[in-house]
Amino acid sequence: MTQVSGESQRCLARCLMGMCIIILLSTALMSTSCAPSGSTLDDGTNRMSADSSLLSQGYRSLNDLGRAAVQALNDTSADELAQLMVTEPEFRDVIFARTPDSLKAGLPWNEAWLMNVSDSHLAIRRKLESLGGQNLRFIRTFVGDSTATTVFPGKTTYRNVIIVAEKPDDGQQIQFRFMNVVAMVGGRCKVVAFHK
Length: 196
What we know:
The protein is α+β, with helices and mostly antiparallel strands. The protein has helices at residues 6-33, 62-74, 78-82, 88-96, 109-131; strands at 137-143, 149-152, 155-166, 173-185, 188-194. Strands 1, 2, 3, 4 and 5 form a five-stranded antiparallel sheet that branches.
């Protein structure tokens, strides 16, 4: 059996303590970012995202954002719909920066931004062709399924956001998927990408 010096024992103890701290931090991060459905979501008010100016002119809720989208459709305004989206600096500095590297598919932020903008402009044009100018009455929004909400430190992302609206002529309720990805940061939400 080999004898270990006092210095080696102290070094080993520091290493073990460091490993314990890393394990505890990893566990805490996993429980935050993999919150089960029904748990309290990070609405963007935690210490990493308390600044509501991070998404300027963002909406306080998915319903407020959905209401604005329906109004823009009623106005047949592509510009109003485009204004619901994050800006290029917001995408780069807030959305992309708070997305784990494992989810970035190896794309630099500017390529991901160009893809989002291109797809979203196509989606806006298609949705205006199918629902523009119909004087829909907004009812509510909901997230398509429980796996479509992802909580990251400082950001909550909603995918598959469904808008429910009512047609004025017959009162029929319709549901449509339009806001493909919505981010909530600092208590404000904006569209990251529209569904084409």
